[in-house]
Amino acid sequence: xxxxxxxxxxxxxxxxxxxxxxxxxxxxxxxxxxxxxxxxxxxxxxxxxxxxxxxxxxxxxxxxxxxxxxxxxxxxxxxxxxxxxxxxxxxxxxxxxxxxxxxxxxxxxxxxxxxxxxxxxxxxxxxxxxxxxxxxxxxxxxxxxxxxxxxxxxxxxxxxxxxxxxxxxxxxxxxxxxxxxxxxxxxxxxxxxxxxxxxxxxxxxxxxxxxxxxxxxxxxxxxxxxxxxxxxxxxxxxxxxxxxxxxxxxxxxxxxxxxxxxxxxxxxxxxxxxxxxxxxxxxxxxxxxxxxxxxxxxxxxxxxxxxxxxxxxxxxxxxxxxxxxxxxxxxxxxxxxxxxxxxxxx
Length: 346
Known about the structure:
Elements: E1 17-20, E2 26-29, E3 36-38, H1 43-50, H2 56-59, E4 60-63, H3 74-77, E5 85-86, H4 93-97, E6 103-107, H5 111-120, E7 125-128, H6 133-146, H7 150-171, E8 181-190, E9 193-198, H8 204-211, E10 215-216, E11 228-230, H9 232-238, E12 242-246, H10 252-261, H11 263-266, H12 269-272, E13 276-278, H13 293-304, H14 314-326, H15 330-336
Parallel strand pairs: 3-4, 3-6, 4-5, 6-7, 8-10, 8-12, 12-13
Antiparallel strand pairs: 1-2, 8-9, 9-11
Helix pairs in contact: 6-7, 7-13, 8-13
């Protein structure tokens, strides 16, 4: 078991440090940064990863919006949250500078739009990604250097790697024709109009299906830069064995009930066979490149190929995740996590 995160695993040093960020830039600090700002697009993805380190609570002084649906996870794991400077989601360089940071952590995707203006003010910026498993290992190592807790970074990498390896080993001998034909859809509803979208093949959502032993039926879609909208006719044509529904904003369980009651959806083979599933979520959906992706991988692999995961206790997996990664004991788990769990969980 990974040691609790209530205290740093190593004695901090006051010597200078140099890190290589996601863009290959070497960033040097005369002393370890103590006033860190988290802001920018897709902040929840990196904020949740940063809070895997016990030092984050004391060193993060300002952050942007970390709510995706209706509830915010960061206050659960940061006892100092009430003292944080809360920035607008579109905060610019001047607002960031007002927090007097000695480090701003940003996704590399905003390097031009936000990073450069911040750097122009003489504020050090380190770019991270946290989009793929490989980037997870790299970026966790970078955070380990910044927080002077490389031992914790190694523990975290091992936690994720062990679970990826377990899934990969369980489905390694599956031939393509043995894999379930899977459709994963992002469901959104605005003004009563429902839309369905599929993810690019290089995104985390597709990786979860493929690594977990499924065959993504949307492989031949002509993708743009992000989610691609698909019609019900296309969904019916794919005739997937299993369908997984993701909801980011709204009630996942209600969306699943609505689809199951829809005559057009009732005509789909996967729905007829009881294989329409809500992709689990708590504060955030488990399909995203947030630390919860490892729960998403474990869950979807077991759903797609249940005979390969007969001994898996998903409830135990969830509780272990929050205990080992965020130091939430049983009482904190029951109070803060269990009430927010949605989706097709045992």
